[in-house]
Amino acid sequence: MLDLLMEKVIILGSGCAGLTAAIYAARANLSPLVLEGRQPGGQLSTTTLVENYPGFPDGIDGPQLIINMHDQAEKFGARFSYAEATDLELRNNHVRIKADDEWLETQALIIASGASARYLGLENEEKLVGHGLTSCATCDGAFYKNVPVCVIGGGDSAAEESLFLTRFASKVYLIHRRDKMRASKIMADRVLANKKIEPIWNTVVTKYIPDEKGEMRAVRLRNVKTNEERELPVACVFVAIGHDPNTKAFAGKLDSDPEGYLIAKNLAESKHPGVFIAGDVADRVYRQAVTAAGTGCAAAMDAERYLRDLEK
Ligand code: NAP
């Protein structure tokens, strides 16, 4: 059961930003309550080896990094709940959060609700998720052994997913709408050097084709240069075309840009006193674990200063 008293700090989200904020707020004796939501751990929990988080020269598994941060925050007194924030009311000197069916009150709120994988918006999409359509190679890759699969996208996520999938699939098609990858050079080079990965350039998926049992059987492709269409048999489609910020619960209540990313006044302060912002929910540019951790730290420090000023 959640504590119904006025909280000092509530943190929405338990990815890299939320957990870093929790570590800092807990070490400042604020006993933060972290509302993890239905998908705890954020994007790092669905990734593989993280090679660019400082301090791990041999890399660290994303889920392990999240477990370590969670344990670190808990050790200093952070509390966790799987409740999901669905609404928010901004008051003069506190904030009300609807978490599942309960309203919670807090003096300071840190929003670190992250971003979620984007899908193409094609017919049958919702029905096919979990039946040969997914955005998480780490979660579902092992189900597709010795069969052809495809990855859609040309960024670092698409590169990382393609490389990971070569462990299982007989062939990995990388379908990208341009003829040049957006991914960092090191990742793009690895993809292009891997014999199991076949890039299909200048091409978009226009249709998912399920079999009679409703499992993915193939995709319809269209070359955007020639308009030529063809069918490509694949047992699973891994969509890696970026993310949308998780801000539905606060729509219209806090400053956001047209795509829904929250806007911070400086690094982590929102325009509303007592509301702080951290991580990918406000970051359309860097979107790295280390920048999320950095803004998580800033949000907790700003919240601590705000609470100290309230007591004066
Ligand atoms: P991203 O960099 O935004 O790349 C998205 C890719 O999907 C782009 O290639 C884009 O094509 C394509 N795309 C977008 N919308 C599409 C659509 N409707 N149809 C077809 N293709 C579409 O996203 P990301 O790869 O998820 O990476 C996000 C951030 O996380 C980046 O900053 C990245 O560096 C970082 N990241 C880092 C690592 C790592 O360092 N190991 C791993 C994963 C992610 P265009 O290129 O034509 O725009």
Q: What is the topological layout?
A:
Blueprint: E1 7-12, H1 16-27, E2 33-35, E3 49-50, E4 60-61, H2 62-75, E5 79-81, E6 85-90, E7 95-99, E8 102-111, E9 115-117, H3 125-128, E10 133-134, H4 137-140, E11 148-152, H5 156-165, E12 171-175, H6 185-193, E13 197-200, E14 203-210, E15 216-223, E16 229-233, E17 236-239, E18 243-245, E19 275-277, H7 289-311
Parallel strand pairs: 1-2, 1-8, 2-5, 8-19, 10-17, 11-12, 11-17, 12-13
Antiparallel strand pairs: 3-4, 6-7, 7-8, 9-18, 14-15, 15-16
Kindly give the count of domains.
2
On the 0 to 100 scale, the average pLDDT is 94
Helix-strand string: EHEEEHEEEEEHEHEHEHEEEEEEEH
Tell me the major beta sheet.
7 strands, mixed
For the record, give the distance between the C-alpha atoms at the N and C termini, rounded to a whole number: 32 Å
CATH superfamily of the largest domain: FAD/NAD(P)-binding domain
Structural class call reads alpha/beta
CATH topology of the largest domain: FAD/NAD(P)-binding domain
Helix content bin: 10-25%
Q: What is the CATH-assigned architecture of the largest domain?
A: 3-Layer(bba) Sandwich
Shape: elongated
Overall number of strands: 19
Give the assembly state of these chains: single chain
**Bound heterogens, unique:** NADP nicotinamide-adenine-dinucleotide phosphate
